[in-house]
Structures are given as structure tokens and as C-alpha cells.
Write a structure and sequence with these properties.
Elements (H helix, E strand, L loop, with lengths): L1 E2 L3 H12 L5 E3 L7 H4 L31 H14 L3 E3 L4 E7 L2 E6 L3 E4 L2 E3 L6 E2 L13 E4 L14 E4 L3 H12 L5 E4 L6 E3 L1 E2 L2 E2 L1 H7 L4 H15 L15 H8 L4 E3 L1 H8 L3 E4 L2 E4 L4 E3 L4 E2 L3 E4 L3 E2 L3 H4 L18 E3 L2 E3 L8 H31 L1
Parallel strand pairs: 1-2, 1-7, 2-3, 7-23, 9-20, 10-11, 10-20, 11-16, 12-15
Antiparallel strand pairs: 4-5, 5-6, 8-21, 13-14, 17-18, 18-19, 22-23
Helix pairs in contact: 1-10, 6-7
Length: 379
């Protein structure tokens, strides 16, 4: 049984099928890749198609070096069909319980039993907006980045984007080029920044290689690349953080803000204005951490996601204090229960495929061992 028909879940089902193990994929939405379908129009993968492919499946050349949102949706659709996966759409999993040496998986309509379960609902599952003081008093429009599509409805509107990560930077630039009024980016934690592509080379290729190095060594290399390709943005409010990209990644699992050169240019030109952290909301404005005030007509919170796993498996003792799996990546978090697709790293979709292979191989071994044990006991 697999929960989630995104890249990780589909890869898990395909790898199990390759090994001769049937798997039913339960998907809460009515189509595969639901979270990708709802992303903003301008979205492109931060990683190139070479590191973003699932096992036994390539992107078509027309997808370009960095596939778009629609490329990704089409890719997942083809993947499900070509691997003949058994998918049950419209099946939102409400709880997973230990039962009879296996697991019961309960949806609103039916309860399934399986000896092995893979949970692959994604690390960007549940949009989160902080409970800022005065949030209910704000009279402008407040939405999460997950609900942003394009700049059309924000033409002429001053917009504050909260969060300088990949989505926050991209959405802010999309607003600026799409006719919004003033566009501010509110920064609480100074981001590490890297270019999606530099000198014709996708940024994720050297980043993937650098993961094998000691973090301090990789940080020095990344710092040099930043100085050469991005330069010093301190005068525009983006002083590099003290902690490097790879040290932060190893400590927190946090990814850098991956952007195009055009975004950096918009910051330098003042089209995107960097401001301090949002402190509180007022009916017609926002108070910032340095005491200054801005008056946006809309606020877009690029403030991250939760796993959404607490209600499903929170009672099993397999989640950490942030609500993410303590053990993931293919190894069993509990006997017969695995989580894949929760690792933040360069080339993440490709890594999901490798996690799926590891999980499938382990499941196959366990099933074969159980069968051999039953046969021996019967004889």
C-alpha cells in the first residue's frame, strides 16, 4: 500500500511492480501529481531534468533544461500510465494503525489492510501561515504562496511577500514583471542564495557533488561561487548569512533560495525591495521588526508547509517535533512502515527515485523472507 501519487509514491509503486510486488496507490485528489497542478504558472523546477527524473523514465527534450509545472504534470501522468500503476484517486487517508502484524489504512470510504505501507505524501503538504499579531484585523488580502497563480489580479497593487526562499523570490519577481505596484520581500532569516544556472551549467549539478564533501569545504566553494556570480547584496538588505549553504543543509535540512539572474537584477534595481521581518499586522498596514511600516494591499505568505502527517501517523511515535518522519528515505520507521520523499536536497526528485528503489528492495526482501519462513513452518 502506498499513500500519495506524487513523484515519490509513483516511483515506489513502479519499483515494487518491477520486483513483482503489486501495490495500490491511494491518492486524496482525483489525479496524480495534484500538488504540482496547483502551483503558480511561472514555476520551473529548481533542478535540471537530468537530476529530476524518476527511474526508467526521461523527460522529453521539449521540456527544456528546467521543466515547467505543466511539464512535470505531464511527466507524472505518463509515468503512471507507462508503468501501469494501480491508483485509487479520491482516497484521502485519515489514519494508519498497527493491526494483525501489518497495517490498516483508513480512508473515509474504506479501510485497507497491508503488510507493508509506504507513505509518500510530500514534505510540502499543508500550507502554513504564521499567527501574526493582528492577523485577523488586516483588511487587505492575505494568502499563502500555495494559492498564488499569477500576477493578473495584483496589477497596480502593492504587495508584501513574506519569505525570501525559492517560492517567495520567484513570486515576488513574477509580481514585479506582471504589473504589481511596489513589491517588498520581508526577510526574517537571511537566505543563502544560488543561481539556478550559471555559465550554462545547472546549479544543482555541482551542488549534488558538493554534498559528498565536508560541509565547511563545500561552504567555502559555494561562497566563492556566490561572490563571483551574485556579488554582495548587503546594500539592498541581503547580507549573506554567517552559516553556509551546506552547513545549514546538514543542520536543518534547509535549501538555499535558488533564483535566476533576473531576480538578482530586480533586487539591485530596486524593483524588489528587501525589508525586515513582519512583526505584526494592522488594519491597513504591516509593522516590521525595525519599527518601519509598509501598507500593502495584499500579503503573500511564502512561509512554508507542514507535513500533514500528525493526524495520520502522529500516534505511532514515528514523527519528530516538527511533524516529519524520524526515519525516512527507504529504511523502515516501524516494521512494515516507510516514508519516502521527505529529504531536502539538490536533485530532490531524482533522490525520491533512489529512495523508492531502496524501499522497494527492502520490502521485497522482507516479503520473500516471510514467505520462506511460512514455507519452512508448514513443512
Amino acid at each position: 500500500m502506498i499513500v500519495g501519487a506524487g513523484p515519490a509514491g509513483l516511483a515506489g509503486a513502479a519499483q515494487l511492480r518491477r520486483l513483482g510486488v503489486s501495490a495500490l496507490v491511494l491518492e486524496r485528489a482525483n489525479q496524480v501529481g495534484a500538488s504540482w497542478r496547483s502551483r503558480y504558472d511561472r514555476l520551473r523546477l529548481n533542478t535540471c531534468r537530468w537530476t529530476s527524473a524518476l527511474p526508467d523514465s526521461r523527460y522529453p527534450r521539449k521540456a527544456g533544461l528546467f521543466p515547467t509545472r505543466d511539464d512535470m504534470v505531464a511527466y507524472l501522468e505518463r509515468y503512471a500510465v507507462s508503468h501501469e500503476l494501480d491508483i485509487c484517486p479520491g482516497s484521502r487517508v485519515e489514519a494508519i494503525e498497527r493491526e494483525d502484524g501489518g497495517w490498516s489504512v483508513r480512508t473515509a470510504a474504506e479501510t485497507y489492510w497491508a503488510s507493508q505501507v509506504i507513505v509518500a505524501t510530500g514534505h510540502q503538504h499543508t500550507p502554513q501561515i504564521p499567527t501574526w499579531p493582528g492577523r485577523d484585523d488586516y483588511q487587505g488580502r492575505l494568502l499563502h504562496a500555495a494559492d498564488y497563480r499569477n500576477a493578473d489580479e495584483f496589477r497596480g497593487v502593492d504587495v508584501l511577500v513574506v519569505g525570501p526562499g525559492c517560492s517567495g523570490m520567484e513570486i515576488a519577481y513574477d509580481l514585479a514583471r506582471g504589473g504589481a505596484g511596489r513589491v517588498w520581500i520581508s526577510v526574517r532569516t537571511r537566505p543563502n542564495i544560488m543561481l539556478r544556472q550559471s555559465g550554462g551549467l545547472p546549479g544543482d549539478l555541482p551542488a549534488c557533488a558538493s554534498l559528498r564533501l565536508p560541509p565547511r569545504v563545500a561552504d567555502r566553494m559555494a561562497g566563492l561561487v556566490r561572490r563571483l556570480t551574485i556579488g554582495d547584496l548587503s546594500r539592498w538588505g541581503l547580507t549573506p548569512p554567517d552559516e553556509g549553504i551546506f552547513s545549514r543543509h546538514h543542520r536543518e535540512g534547509k535549501a538555499p533560495a535558488i533564483v535566476d539572474k533576473e531576480v538578482i537584477g530586480a533586487i539591485r534595481s530596486g524593483r524588489l525591495e528587501i525589508v525586515r521581518a513582519l512583526q505584526s499586522l494592522e488594519p491597513t498596514g504591516v509593522l516590521l521588526a525595525d519599527g518601519s511600516r509598509v501598507e500593502p494591499g495584499a500579503i503573500i505568505a511564502a512561509t512554508g508547509y507542514g507535513s500533514g502527517l500528525e493526524t495520520v501517523v502522529g500516534h505511532l511515535g514515528v514523527l519528530d517535533e516538527r511533524g516529519y518522519p524520524r526515519v525516512h528515505g527507504g529504511a523502515a520507521a516501524a516494521p512494515g512502515l516507510r516514508f519516502i520523499g521527505y529529504r531536502h536536497r539538490p536533485g530532490q526528485i531524482g533522490e525520491m527515485g533512489r529512495e523508492a528503489q531502496r524501499a522497494a528492495n527492502e520490502i521485497k526482501r522482507e516479503l520473500d523472507s516471510a514467505t520462506a519462513g511460512s514455507t519452512a513452518a508448514a513443512s
